[in-house]
Amino acid sequence: MTWVKDFLERLDSTTSLDGVQNLVVELRNRLGVEHAIYHIVGGTGREYGALTYDPDWVQHYIDSQYFRIDPVVNAAFHSHRPIDWKTLNWRQPAARRLIREAVDEGVGKQGYTVPIRGVDGQFALFSVTSYDSESAWDRFGAEHLHHLVLCGHYIHQRAAEIMAPDPAHRAADLSARERDVLTLLSLGHSRGEAAQRLRISEHTFRAYLDTARLKLNAANTVQAVASAVTRGLILP
């Protein structure tokens, strides 16, 4: 899609965290969702968020320590796959209170979250939320889930570069899942076979491949695999 290419190019030219924040707001508007949220805890322990939530809700979430019981956060720690909030267990009283307050405070009742992991132990989340019906949200996911994975990983890459501007580090900042994808392709597996081995959909596999290719500045898959091998990011 032209708008995705334009977004990634503008993100790549951004030189400040304020610029990342502005682009996350624009992405929210372009997707027509209630909120877009990116949050990282870097390898140095520095935290950074680019998000459209009301600051009062963010402070309430922190003060209530909802991060300790949030089903979205718990699921993200144990998954590489995008998470549809409605598939999670919200039956516990604390979780029910969290989602009820989130709906009341303008967060939304639907959400997708993309877990992101960097090579230096970084862990980040990229989410979008909405008040759509379940059927409308399913249609949104079918159309945009691939874009969410791509944009989320690229936002992470740019934020990490700005926070730790080391060219050698930037070149090597492939996530564990991106390295898995390139490793299986380097061993001769087809995309379908590799996706099956990783227990992810071909749709998600393609998104990880796209983000790896962009990070390596590779024109195609063959070039991405060759670049990763040459740089020692994956074993041949």
Task: Outline the structure in words.
It is globular and about 50 Å long. The two termini are 33 Å apart. Strands 2-1-5-4-3 form a 5-stranded antiparallel beta sheet. It has helices at 2-13, 17-31, 55-63, 71-77, 93-104, 134-163, 167-171, 176-186, 191-198, 202-215, 221-230; strands at residues 35-41, 47-51, 83-84, 110-117, 123-130. A hairpin with a 5-residue loop joins strand 4 and strand 5 (123-130). It has 11 helices and 5 strands. With 236 residues, it is of the alpha+beta class. The mean pLDDT is 87. It folds into 2 domains: 2-163, Transcription factor LuxR-like, autoinducer-binding domain (Beta-Lactamase, 2-Layer Sandwich); 174-230, Winged helix-like DNA-binding domain superfamily/Winged helix DNA-binding domain (Arc Repressor Mutant, subunit A).
| Strand order in the largest sheet | 2-1-5-4-3
CATH superfamily of the largest domain: Transcription factor LuxR-like, autoinducer-binding domain
**Biggest sheet, in brief?**
5 strands, antiparallel
Succession of helices and strands: HHEEHHEHEEHHHHHH
Oligomer: single chain
Instruction: Calculate Rg over CA atoms.
Output: 18 Å
Fraction of residues in H or I helices: 55-70%
What is the count of distinct domains?
2
Summarize the structure.
The chain is an alpha+beta fold. The chain contains eleven helices and five strands; from the N terminus they run H-H-E-E-H-H-E-H-E-E-H-H-H-H-H-H. It has a five-stranded antiparallel beta sheet.
